[in-house]
Design goal:
The chain is mainly alpha-helical. The protein has one domain. α8 runs parallel beside α12. The longest helix is centred in the middle third of the chain and has 32 residues.
């Protein structure tokens, strides 16, 4: 039976001092950010991490440094959601059978991903093909590392009969055996990775290759604004890629459960390529020739204040993703984040992003009354999409005790 939590499920006895036992350590993301800045500076100087391929190298270094910090300093492998570690698991028949089921699950999962990428016309686009080529170059590193982790962690944990094992059992028995709920959760998690990994990696490859070679000389506020805006988006993408690729239970970064409702998937996916382009172009067009940079005289005081406010909002947006460390992912619960901007509001990324839309596009100042009215209504509807997205995310996350504690802390101040 699937548990659907609501705010009514929050116990009144939860106190502010209740411990969130599986939280992402607060400093992890900022350490990763420092590594990212260093890698990008080296790419700009031509020392290392150059070109589009340098993006994946930088992401790998960021993840390794953050993971090492969390293991050595915070010992995240001892978090309750990770499960007890034995470090000397016996080679029993049961454990070997479960490992065999996991192997089947991995092979079928890879096959399903290959079929999706080979079948859907979207992935035949040259942009995606370049992304797949870049990822394929890392297979000689990723495949052995994954196999070592899969086998090693399997024998190091008591929680061996997980969703992957149940999916493998389901496939090996042609559907006669296997926990249906866990099989569903595995397939939903696989769909999330299949959809988002090439999308995020593609954005990162493009932005890194361009920004690491582009002339970022700052001669006035406009050039500073444009450079910072693009760099903040790059920060968001870097942590997004790491989050989707590196979902290891040993680090407490695994998927506890995915979003299981159609509404949650609908309001999330409609914000991404290719769905958003269709919606924005045909239904919710809120941009006009009049934007903030054309309203104020360049380098005037209002121009500087308005542009700085937009950059502040985008900084909050980027730092919201940074706060996840290597646990960022849409449509999943992978442990609560209660530091950084999430210390002050539950949805800082959505709030800052939507406010920046209003400040950048300024639809109320459309070139005509009809343009202003339609643009304003369209952007309000976009805000409502994000509001519904946030509501569904909260319902999903409230299934875990840690998030209910986090949520209760905000309710006391409302």
């Amino acid at each position: 039976m699937t548990y659907t939590a609501t705010t009514a499920d929050l116990p009144d006895e939860l106190e502010a001092e209740d411990t969130i036992r599986n939280a992402q350590p607060a400093a992890t993301g900022y350490i990763g950010l420092a590594v990212l800045v260093t890698c990008f500076a080296m790419a700009r100087s031509g020392v290392a991490f150059t070109g589009a391929d340098g993006f994946l190298q930088a992401c790998a270094v960021m993840f390794l440094v953050m993971a090492a910090y969390d293991c050595l300093i915070h010992r995240v492998y001892l978090q309750p959601d990770v499960g007890a570690l034995t470090w000397s698991g016996p080679l029993s028949r049961t454990s070997l059978i479960l490992l065999a089921y996991k192997s089947v699950g991995v092979l079928v999962s890879v096959g399903l991903a290959f079929v999706a990428y080979s079948t859907f016309p979207l992935y035949q686009d040259a942009w995606y093909q370049l992304t797949f080529s870049a990822l394929a170059a890392w297979l000689p590193v990723m495949v052995p590392a994954f196999v070592i982790y899969l086998v090693g962690f399997h024998f190091a944990t008591h929680r061996r009969d997980d969703a992957l094992a149940q999916f493998g059992r389901f496939c090996a028995t042609l559907g006669r055996d296997g926990d249906r709920a866990l099989v569903r959760d595995h397939l939903l998690g696989l769909a999330i990775k299949v959809f988002f990994i090439p999308l995020m990696v593609g954005f990162g490859l493009t932005d890194w290759g361009r920004l690491s070679t582009f002339d970022l000389a700052v001669v006035d506020f406009r050039s500073f604004y444009e450079a910072m805006y693009q760099l903040l988006l790059l920060v968001d993408v870097c942590f997004g890629v790491i989050g989707y690729v590196c979902s290891f239970r040993l680090l407490g970064a695994h998927v506890r459960f995915p979003e299981r409702t159609a509404g949650g998937w609908l309001f999330c996916l409609m914000c991404y390529v290719p769905f958003w382009q269709i919606i924005n172009r045909n239904f919710l067009t809120y941009n006009d020739t009049i934007v903030w940079g054309t309203v104020f005289a360049e380098n005037s005081v209002p121009y500087l204040i308005w542009g700085s406010t937009i950059l502040f909002l985008m900084t909050v947006y980027a730092l919201s993703t940074v706060s996840f460390g290597y646990r960022f992912s849409n449509l999943t619960y992978r442990g609560v984040v209660c530091s950084g901007p999430y210390r002050y509001m539950r949805h800082p990324a959505y709030v800052s992003k939507n406010l920046s839309y209003w400040m950048i596009e300024m639809p109320v100042l459309g070139s005509s009354f009809a343009s202003a009215a339609s643009g304003t209504v369209a952007l309000v509807l976009v805000n409502l999409i994000y509001l519904m997205r946030a509501r569904y995310e909260e319902r999903c996350c409230l299934q875990h005790e840690d998030y209910r504690i986090y949520y209760a802390r905000f309710r006391r101040h409302e």
